[in-house]
Design a protein that fits this description.
The protein has about 140 residues and is an alpha+beta fold. It has helices at about 5-15, 20-35, 45-50, 85-90, 95-105; strands at about 50-60, 65, 80-85. Among the domains are: about 5-40, no CATH class; about 45-105, no CATH class. It has a three-stranded antiparallel beta sheet with strand order 2-1-3. The N and C termini lie far apart (about 70 Å). About 15% of the residues are buried.
Length: about 140
């Protein structure tokens, strides 16, 4: 019996609740042979690897400055509203302005933690009234 590679074992442990089991070992052996590509990292790895930009401080040429400030105190840059670069490019000017305005209207740094606000405002209106058939 051939030993399973560490990558296959790790992938099987992530995928199955019970390990070792016949199904988990079969999956692990397929990962080791290269027949199945195991997911590595996932969404969090992608999220961390994205290029984050500050939509509250656009450059004159339409591009965005990188997210963050060197020092909060004494900085002439206001509190940043950071989003991934791809999202910033998809947003309209009014959406960017609205997001920055909502971020800066909240008290910043409460309890030493950053303040989070939704990037896109909740849609108001458009709700449908449905009459009850039992009235």
């Amino acid at each position: 019996m051939a030993k399973l590679c560490p990558k296959g074992k790790a992938a099987a442990k992530r995928k199955f609740d019970v390990y070792p089991s016949a199904y988990a070992n079969m999956y692990a052996s397929k990962v080791c042979k290269g027949k199945v590509k195991a997911k590595e990292g996932g969404a969090l790895k992608k999220w961390v690897g994205e290029e984050w930009v500050d939509i509250g401080a656009p450059k004159k040429d339409g591009k965005f400055q990188p997210c963050g400030r060197k020092k909060a105190k004494g900085s002439k840059r206001k509190y940043p509203k950071c989003v991934p670069k791809a999202k910033a490019q998809r947003m309209t000017a009014s959406q960017r302005k609205s997001a920055v305005q909502r971020k800066r209207s909240k008290k910043q740094g409460v309890g030493g933690k950053p303040t989070n606000v939704k990037t896109f405002a909740a849609k108001h209106g458009g709700s449908l009234l449905v009459a009850s058939m039992y009235d």
